[in-house]
């Protein structure tokens, strides 16, 4: 059956190719040559007996150290955020594997999904790619993504060997839709270039073959791509190379050489790139005192009405939130405790669960693993572990406990909870998982 499916897929692709106008622009030779600088990365977690695949690209040959390769942080870590061994494949999974050492850009901030990998020997014949700052990129520019997407491996009859030669690199193209998109405080280029699993860490190139970004994620709705894909600015790599004396080549400029630093002290930095300078604010207009007086009067009326309603509400016992307010849990929630009223629940304050309410009558686990969590985040949710934290109703009081998550559970104040140490929550208190977009508030 697989053979027929592959044949049907090949026929569909051929039909699509015939439908493309003959006048379609071909990628420049510089873009085509760049595939010689792209490598496949395989990481293996011996504890879980599981592996990940991703992409990287060469930025420099550092005499005395080796070859510097850029990739995504999530390619070199397991689901718990722990660093695991990584290898560069030169031919296929049964061929030559080169071990690589990982150097973090900002070890204190896991939200920047970028790392450096250093290969001591074996990549000397791979030409470094030139880097071009984002200021050279404009909305509407044609760009290209290179990498080893897993879906391409599945479409070939290779017996699971993961062909990893330069000629096996996949090239997709598209148009920049936004140059200064932002996620978790980090800038990325938004485009409609297809970025699939396995492409992570590969280069996004301009038409001259210079790297302008690092392919990192593709957004989906209902499990289907929506044409919104992100590549982190290459400026973060340029900035770190400058700070750590790592050689690199700026597009159109001679290579920037290092000064032979001590690799035990100069290879890792915890400083973020300088913030973008914003234009001076526009002077404020004269304050409209008349309008302010009217607004203040309306506010007093609203406060008075709210107080009357609140006093009336206190006379009646609070009713548990109806089950229809909560979406279906990924697993079966713990049963409610008999004789214990449901004092409150939690409501999403942002992201996937914004304004969705979840009554808490027993134990509610939160995470990305549908087998262990009741409130299940998408697999693409940044900062959320498989089993991240739990909220438990303890005789009418809510207890929040971090379950050993990778990126932490935080109160609204920014305080990070210690693992397995319950924290009492009161109505109005907020908390979030890894990033503030994954937030909830007690009601």
Describe, in plain words, how this protein is organized in 3D.
- The chain has helices at 2-19, 29-33, 150-154, 235-244, 263-266, 289-314, and strands spanning 38-45, 50-62, 66-71, 86-89, 97-104, 115-119, 142-147, 170-183, 186-191, 203-205, 211-221, 224-233, 248-249, 255-256, 345-348, 357-359, 363-367, 375-376, 389-394, 397-402, 409-411, 423-425, 430-433, 439-442.
- It is an alpha+beta fold.
- The chain folds into two domains: 27-266, Beta Barrel (Thrombin, subunit H), CATH 2.40.10.120; 324-442, Tumour Suppressor Smad4.
- Strand 15 and strand 16 (357-359) form a beta hairpin.
- The longest helix has 26 residues, at 289-314.
- The model is unreliable at 1-24, 256-285 and 317-343 (pLDDT under 50).
H/E element string?
HHEEEEEEEHEEEEEHEEHHEEEEEEEEEE
Q: State which percent range the strand residues make up.
A: 25-35%
Percent of residues in helices: 10-25%
Instruction: Quote the distance from N terminus to C terminus.
Output: 53 Å
Q: What layout of secondary structure does this protein have?
A:
Elements: H1 2-19, H2 29-33, E1 38-45, E2 50-62, E3 66-71, E4 86-89, E5 97-104, E6 115-119, E7 142-147, H3 150-154, E8 170-183, E9 186-191, E10 203-205, E11 211-221, E12 224-233, H4 235-244, E13 248-249, E14 255-256, H5 263-266, H6 289-314, E15 345-348, E16 357-359, E17 363-367, E18 375-376, E19 389-394, E20 397-402, E21 409-411, E22 423-425, E23 430-433, E24 439-442
Parallel strand pairs: 17-18
Antiparallel strand pairs: 1-2, 1-4, 2-3, 3-6, 4-5, 5-6, 7-8, 7-10, 8-9, 9-12, 10-11, 11-12, 13-14, 15-16, 15-24, 17-19, 19-20, 20-22, 21-23, 23-24
């Amino acid at each position: 059956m697989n053979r027929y499916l592959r044949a049907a897929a090949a026929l569909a692709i051929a039909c699509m190719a015939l439908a493309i106008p003959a006048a379609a622009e071909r990628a420049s030779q510089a873009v085509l040559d760049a595939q010689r600088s792209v490598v496949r990365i395989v990481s293996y977690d011996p504890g879980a007996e599981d592996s990940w695949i991703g992409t990287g690209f060469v930025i420099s040959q550092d005499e005395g150290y080796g070859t510097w390769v850029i990739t995504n942080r999530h390619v070199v870590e397991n689901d718990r955020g722990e660093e695991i061994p990584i290898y560069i494949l030169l031919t296929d999974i049964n061929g030559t594997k080169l071990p690589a050492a990982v150097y973090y850009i900002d070890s204190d901030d896991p939200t920047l999904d970028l790392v450096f990998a250093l290969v001591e020997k074996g990549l000397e014949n791979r030409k470094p790619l030139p880097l071009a700052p984002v200021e050279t990129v404009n909305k509407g520019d044609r760009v290209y993504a290179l990498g080893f997407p897993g879906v391409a491996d599945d479409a070939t009859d290779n017996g699971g060997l993961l062909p990893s030669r330069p000629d096996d690199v996949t090239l997709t193209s598209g148009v920049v839709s936004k140059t200064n998109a932002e996620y978790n405080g980090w800038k990325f280029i938004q485009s409609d270039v297809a970025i699939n699993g396995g492409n992570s860490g590969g280069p996004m190139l301009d038409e001259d073959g210079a790297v302008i970004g690092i392919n990192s994620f593709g957004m989906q709705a209902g499990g289907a791509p929506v044409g919104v894909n992100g590549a982190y600015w290459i400026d973060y790599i340029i900035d770190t190379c400058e700070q750590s004396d790592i050689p690199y080549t700026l597009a159109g400029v001679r290579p920037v050489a290092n000064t032979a630093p001590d690799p035990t002290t100069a290879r890792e930095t915890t400083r973020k790139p300088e913030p973008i300078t914003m234009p001076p604010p526009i002077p404020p207009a004269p304050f409209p005192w008349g309008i302010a007086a009217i607004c203040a009067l309306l506010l007093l009326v609203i406060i008075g009405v709210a107080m009357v309603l609140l006093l009336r509400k206190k006379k009646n016992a609070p009713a548990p939130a109806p089950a229809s307010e909560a979406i279906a849990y990924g697993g079966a929630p713990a049963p409610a405790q008999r004789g214990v009223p449901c004092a409150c629940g939690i409501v999403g304050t942002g992201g996937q669960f914004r304004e969705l309410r979840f009554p808490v009558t027993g134990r509610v686990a939160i995470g990305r693993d549908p087998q262990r969590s009741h409130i299940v985040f998408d697999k693409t949710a940044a900062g959320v572990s498989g089993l991240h934290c739990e909220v438990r109703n303890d005789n009418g009081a809510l207890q929040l406990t971090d379950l050993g998550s990778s990126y932490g559970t935080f109160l609204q104040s920014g305080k990070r909870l210690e693992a397995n140490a319950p924290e009492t929550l009161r109505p109005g208190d907020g908390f979030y998982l890894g990033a503030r977009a994954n937030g909830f508030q007690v009601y």
